[in-house]
Amino acid sequence: MDADGDFTHSPDQWRDRAWMHVAEIEPKESISFGIIGRKGCDVTSEEYALYHGRFAEMLLAHFDSYFVRIEISALATKHDCIISEEE
């Protein structure tokens, strides 16, 4: 987790290529996460898949008693920022 509270993937190959962030919280109902890409680079399909998949894997491995289900969309949602914002 970084200083902003966003999560990146730790292996050197993937570190800081994208971040998962808390996008919306509905008390006692759900938490929505979104992906944020790097400045100057769009999030690729491979990065989108890897970050969502590994984040879900981490939640299942370490926090499975805290939730009932995980939903991941195949395509970006309103919570994702996959198109680069130029500086």
Describe this structure in words.
The chain has one helix at 45-63, and strands at residues 18-26, 30-37. 14% of the residues are buried. It has one domain. With 87 residues, it is of the alpha+beta class. A two-stranded antiparallel ribbon has the order 1-2.
- Strand fraction band? 15-25%
Structural class: alpha+beta
Spans where pLDDT lies below 50 across 5 or more residues? none
Give the count of structural domains. Answer: 1
- Tally of individual helices: 1
Shape: globular
- Calculate the terminal CA-CA distance, rounded to whole Å: 24 Å
Radius of gyration: 13 Å
Proportion of residues in helical segments: 10-25%
Mean pLDDT: 92
Main sheet makeup:
2 strands, antiparallel
Q: Which strand order spans the largest sheet, edge to edge or round the barrel?
A: 1-2
What is the subunit arrangement here?
A: single chain
Number of strands: 2
Element pattern in H and E: EEH
Brief description of this entry?
The chain has 87 residues and is an alpha+beta fold.
Q: Could you give the topology of this structure?
A:
Blueprint: E1 18-26, E2 30-37, H1 45-63
Antiparallel strand pairs: 1-2
